[in-house]
């Protein structure tokens, strides 16, 4: 069975001030063409179809167009909700849409109920594990401590239990939206840390033939059978070195697997440039970036006049400007943002405690801070679901 694995469409998202809807429509067209020309038997979309719980109308219309075009091909599609999606909204009408061969899996309780497709060699069971927010699903899975590994492990127990009831030789595919250990993050994914831990081990998915992951925006191979497709388009300059692709996976009769990366159309290259403004405007080595979307970090000791206007004379598509003056790190004028660079919320809070009282938090106080951050993030998730 030939499977096309994609994820993290983020329909409705902009790239800085650039509207990406046209590029997203171009990707959908490329997806449909790939399905038709490469003889794809099933499409899997591993979450973050939309960029937010209540997407703009234009994004909904594009999604509707994608559903119709995939249904017209007669190729089954399995989709799960991600941490950016509203599972309840995305799942509206799932029963009816399923009759057209588009299978939306947004309910955590249905993790162990697969979409079963067949080829000439037998059945392939597709299990959709939507993004499992630990605070919201821990009761469903009967886990004592709300954590990503615990709820995913419980969901996979249901998958294995169902798979054990099926005919010998039944192959299996799991769709999941999670941060798996060994994956490389970028700056455009929303933090899903719980209890100080964001990642889960790849071993959670042992026992299935292929795990199609979503959440991280770089295409990557965790193990031969556990892969991220990545986002089809860039959504931050940290993705400047990404090759945006989908995985074309061939699942053999005996569960053997081969995978090929299919490039996605990206409207413009990304470039990060750094230096003093006059140097950036004059350096001939930067000529190759003149048609790219550019993020410029200026290191001038004093902020130059009209820097963006001057940059866009050479780099018409410069869309991000930052300042990082060449100064001694101990200089009191070094920016607050620079001092916080690379620190998470927990570390910033612990540093604040140290600054205020002269000593850092002990283990108990660290746990209190961690629980507080988890509670706030869980509350935000609950409120987003209720919107």
TrEMBL record:
Keywords: DNA recombination, DNA replication, Endonuclease, Exonuclease, Hydrolase, Nuclease. Residues 1-217 form the Calcineurin-like phosphoesterase domain. Pfam families: Metallophos, SbcD_C. Gene3D superfamilies: 3.60.21.10. One of its GO terms (biological process) is DNA replication. The keyword Nuclease applies. Residues 267-355 form the Nuclease SbcCD subunit D C-terminal domain. It comes from the Bacteria. GO terms for molecular function: 3'-5' exonuclease activity; endonuclease activity. SbcCD cleaves DNA hairpin structures. These structures can inhibit DNA replication and are intermediates in certain DNA recombination reactions. The complex acts as a 3'->5' double strand exonuclease that can open hairpins. It also has a 5' single-strand endonuclease activity. Heterodimer of SbcC and SbcD. Belongs to the SbcD family. NCBIfam families: sbcd. This is Nuclease SbcCD subunit D. It comes from Streptomyces sp. R21.
């Amino acid at each position: 069975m030939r499977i096309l694995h994609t994820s993290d469409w983020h329909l409705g998202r902009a790239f800085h001030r650039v509207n990406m809807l046209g590029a997203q429509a171009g990707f959908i067209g490329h997806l449909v063409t790939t399905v038709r020309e490469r003889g794809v038997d099933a499409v899997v979309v591993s979450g973050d179809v939309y960029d937010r719980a209540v997407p703009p109308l234009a994004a909904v219309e594009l999604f509707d167009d994608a559903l119709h075009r995939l249904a017209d091909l007669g190729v089954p599609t399995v989709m799960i909700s991600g941490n950016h999606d509203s599972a309840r909204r995305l799942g509206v009408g799932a029963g009816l849409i399923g009759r057209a061969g588009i299978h939306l899996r947004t309910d955590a309780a249905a993790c162990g109920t697969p979409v079963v497709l067949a080829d000439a060699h037998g059945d392939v069971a597709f299990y959709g594990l939507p993004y499992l927010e630990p605070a919201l699903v821990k009761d469903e899975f009967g886990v004592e401590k709300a954590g990503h590994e615990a709820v995913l492990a419980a969901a996979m127990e249901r998958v294995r239990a169902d798979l054990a009831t099926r005919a010998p030789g039944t192959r299996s595919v799991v769709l999941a939206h999670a941060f798996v250990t060994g994956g490389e993050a970028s700056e455009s994914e929303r933090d899903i840390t719980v209890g100080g831990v964001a990642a889960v081990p790849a071993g959670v998915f042992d026992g299935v033939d292929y795990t199609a992951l979503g959440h991280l925006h770089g295409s990557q191979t965790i193990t031969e059978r556990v892969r991220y497709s990545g986002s089809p388009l860039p959504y931050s300059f940290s993705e400047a070195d990404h090759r945006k692709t989908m995985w074309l996976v061939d699942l053999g009769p005996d569960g053997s697997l081969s995978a090929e990366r299919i490039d996605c159309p990206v409207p413009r290259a990304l470039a990060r440039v750094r230096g003093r403004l006059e140097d950036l405007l004059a350096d001939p080595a930067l000529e190759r970036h003149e048609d790219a979307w550019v993020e410029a970090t200026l290191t001038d000791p004093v902020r130059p006049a009209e820097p963006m206007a001057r940059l866009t004379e050479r780099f018409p598509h410069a869309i991000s400007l930052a300042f990082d003056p060449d100064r001694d790190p101990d200089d009191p004028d070094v920016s607050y943002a620079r001092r916080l660079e690379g620190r998470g919320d927990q570390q910033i809070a612990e540093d604040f405690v140290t600054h205020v009282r002269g000593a850092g938090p002990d283990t108990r106080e660290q746990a209190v801070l961690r629980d507080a951050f988890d509670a706030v993030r869980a509350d935000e998730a609950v409120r987003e679901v209720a919107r």
